[in-house]
Amino acid sequence: MSLESNTALQIQKPIEEVFEGIVNPEIMTKYFISESSGRLETGKEVVWKFPEFPDEYPVKETKIEANHFISFVWDPETVVKIRLEKLADNSTLVKVNENGKELNADNLKWALGNSAGWANFLACMKAYLEYGVQLRKGAFDFMRKK
Fold first, then answer.
1. Which strands form 79-86's sheet, in the order they lie side by side?
2. What pLDDT, in 10s, does the model give residues 77-89?
3. Does 110 fall in a domain?
């Protein structure tokens, strides 16, 4: 049995803006990551950095379908899939799924943590894209290693 993390949120912006907010590092650094080595593109590997962690996170095996689907691997055991759905009111439903880990106690903790992490990603993206508010700024400073 494989564990998975799922979350979804509606963003009051057109699908094109939401898609661009995920693949464009100039936008994504305003609400999620602190640095990226480039834009998310099919087959291209990029490296992400987060303000609260010293590590770098390679984002590999990227697959993109413009304004519809983004997938990548940043943990060798899992695949992240982000699906975008245009709604009748011209807003966008964003669904995030990450799966692949075997069911055990450590991975159950991972699933719970990643579900919270992806929910935070969506809330921060919504706040930034809709209102220009950077929710993540300073939110995880307590996690920095001193």
1. 2-11, 92-102, 79-86, 69-73, 56-65, 46-49, 35-36
2. 999 999 999 999 9
3. yes
SS3 106: helix
Q: Assess if residue 145 is contained within a domain.
A: no
What is the tens place of the pLDDT at every residue in 14-67? 999 999 999 999 999 999 999 999 999 999 999 999 888 889 999 999 999 999
Q: Specify the pLDDT at position 135.
A: 87
Instruction: List 63's β-bridge partners, or say none.
Output: 71
Identify the CATH number of the domain in which residue 33 sits: 3.30.530.20
Contacts of 6 (CB under 8 A, 6+ apart): 95, 96, 97, 115
Query: Domain range holding 21?
Result: 2-140
Cα–Cα dist 140/52, whole Å: 6
CA 11 to chain centre: 14
Q: How many domains are there within the chain?
A: 1
- Distance, in Å, from the CA atom of 54 to the CA atom of 2, rounded to the nearest integer, reads 29
C-alpha of 96 from chain center: 8
